[in-house]
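Holo model, protoporphyrin IX containing FE. Inputs:
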Amino acid sequence: MSAEFLCVVAVSLVVAVATWAAIHKILRRGQPQLVLLMPRKSILSQIVSPSSYSLDDFCKQANAFQFKAFWYFNARMARWCAHVSHPDDVSTILLSCDKGDAYADVSLFLGSHGLLTLPLANAEYCYQRRKMQRAFAPNLVRGMATTFGKHASALRNRWLAKTNNGSIVTTVLYYDISESLVAALCEISGFSIPSSPSIRDVASAFRRAAAAGHRRSVSVFGISLSRSGGNNSKSLEDATQVIQSFAEKIVALSLPSLDTGCLLSRICDEDSPDSLSPARTQEKRNQVLDHVKTFLFAGFETTMNSLLWSILLLSNDTGLQTDLAAEINSAFPPSLTTLDVSHVDLIRSLPLLRGVVKEALRLFPPAPIIFRTVGGSSGLHLPHSNVHIPSKTVVAVDLFSMQRNPTAFPNPTSFCPQRWQHECNISGDMDKHMAPFSSGARACLGRDAAMTELMVFIATLVQSIKFDPLRPHLGGDNDCIEYMKTHHVTLAPEFEGQPLRLKISQRIVTP
Ligand code: HEM
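Output:
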């Protein structure tokens, strides 16, 4: 054996050991007991365009691995993340973990004092959450329905005026509906609406800020790619300014005539209406503004998308719309202009209407994936997957895939509101697989208000308006997946890259 040969073997051995050690070190950050790479297309799509992720790919992976946890490389966070989509794993994570730094991009435009971004262990969070929860007590939510009914009727009347003489018109649902929903949200929260910036500008600012914040937080192997200048920072700055100015004007306009007990008075935490006079500290003012921005974002973008998805899914099934309209007519006449509490209870008890809302939330949860970070020092054991998740790991909680699990939902991709009728859900297995509002300590604060709002809006609109798609539906199973557009935090329906448009006409009621 020559000396050169021994030398080559020795060098190769050293290189192999060094490479192995380096790979091991990188992988140890993600504890690869179970390292399963995403398909190349999806990894590539995250690296090339890190602002988008393919929900469809996640769902296929979840199915392929029978809803067991798997690991994937998250290019935006530049680390291995665990992905969970089985209800037992999901509930373990949601009950035991907080957000960690997974939402740093959202704080860029919502600030760090709001409920979405404050950590659970923070005393301020616990105090604010308890206080604001009282503004959503069941009796107060019932009262909100009158406000939702008023704004829904106004929208219906605007559409009826457009479709005068039985004509069929095309409308951009996003623009029409966003104004009504923001107006309703502001009214129930005690926010007066400023005349500028316009609601459309604010709605679009939230989406631009989410996109720019998301891009800014992209890093590669721990090195942040954020730039202090450039178009992205400018876009984030401009959008944040629009949102900030809207929130500041809301507070300035609302304080002089604030109702005690409304959300804003709880946020301000003062008995006296001029609590935010110049004498107040800047810090308190910033906290109040962050809460106002958080409620606008959390309460509008989500209900907006749920309502759009519900109407889009209904537009593909004329028979279902007719059945739904008949169910609603049996509860109250289309001529009704003001809802009182007895109508609210009736509306909320209509089985097909409730099924439509739940089924739209199942197929297209407005927050399709939420993130948590494992705390403590010993990590967490996932019972269903039998996987140990180390401390500090970010976990993607994939509500989208969980809610399309075929063991709980036969024909999981078809829109079938009837599946929510009692006899199909006798074991409660479907409910176990549903968490569009998340669960645990950080579950949505506005859940009941949102469900009531969606039911009142859909009931009022479908009773008088018929919705039709712009073109015959092309997707399989009436799923509408081809309309899916992820806006970083939320999931919206769009048509050919534009806000959703549909045909509307007056509903002719047959006796
Ligand atoms: C269909 C409508 C809605 C859906 C699907 C929805 C969904 C969610 C989800 C999934 C979360 C948890 C986010 C996370 O942990 O990352 C959340 C949190 C939250 N939502 Fe909603 N939401 C809706 C409507 C509303 C409304 C109408 C309001 C208020 C008026 C609201 C206020 C909040 C707040 C304040 C939080 C933060 C709670 C906390 O961390 O303590 N949401 N929502």
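The first helix runs from residue 3 to 28. The radius of gyration is 25 Å.
Archived with the compound record.
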